[in-house]
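User: My advisor asked me to double-check a structure prediction for Peroxidase before group meeting. I don't want to rely on an old file, so could you generate it fresh from this sequence?
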Amino acid sequence: MACFRSLFLILIAAVCSFQANSQLSPDYYSSTCPQALSIVKAEVAAAIKNETRVGASLLRLHFHDCFVNGCDGSLLLDDNSTFIGEKTAVPNNNSARGFNVVDNIKARLEKACPRVVSCADILAIAARDSVVQLGGPSWKVLLGRRDSTTASRSAANTSIPQPTFNLSALISSFSAQGLSIKDLVILSGSHTIGLARCTSFRSHIYNDSDIDPSFANSLRQICPKSGSDNVLAPLDRQTPTRFDSLYYENLLDKKGLLHSDQELFNGNSSTVDLVKRYAANTKLFFKEFAKSMIKMGKIKPLTGNAGEIRINCRKAN
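Assistant: Sure, here is a fresh prediction for Peroxidase from the sequence you gave:
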């Protein structure tokens, strides 16, 4: 009886997940806010023109949002009297950025279509547009997510993978979100753009053996054993502002910036083979990246009457 009850609960959860995802559609705003996609695209392009780095920041916001109780815009909420938000969680504190760009997008959307486009969907669209703007692939973003009314710093601290994770911890972290080892390797490819702080790669350049000695030495010149925590280095040393597949080539050469990056090419055949495959075939990487981004964007969305459409992405209505 207990076994039957467990199976029943699993089936119910699966049905609920399917129903939520089935309500997402690339045409969700086609009649209620037909200019939504063009507004986001224009704002993202302007932001990247002003500061190229923000493209990687916007992509990261979507990733960090989805990994904490689903793609619900919770990351964007400021602290209030009822909860401590996710912005000050360890993976985000002094690190997550691009919130002002989201504010600008939301302000324009509220003028064009008041209380229609969710903050969660803004993050999903802006992530895609950032990738495209920096030379990467495009995909049809599924839309129709609603916004959470709360956030959780503790959930962010436990759910977002850390740069110090080994491969088994990375696999577990992604698996908890319904993402496969293949998704892990593909989505890690987003580190083809952007920068990381010294505090994120310090242990890798001083303590690890799976790193090119000259590469480690060059990084030690800017990142001492203590201090200079906020000094930045490119995640992809070759083309840090262009979305391509050179991230994987770096791993082959033991020049991954983060411990978690290099773990993908450190003896496990399931990930090593994928790294080699994407290093050799940019077209394949782009195709698979688009698929995995769509899959990640479907993690536990709020749909129907759940959640709300925030007027201001920083606070619940």
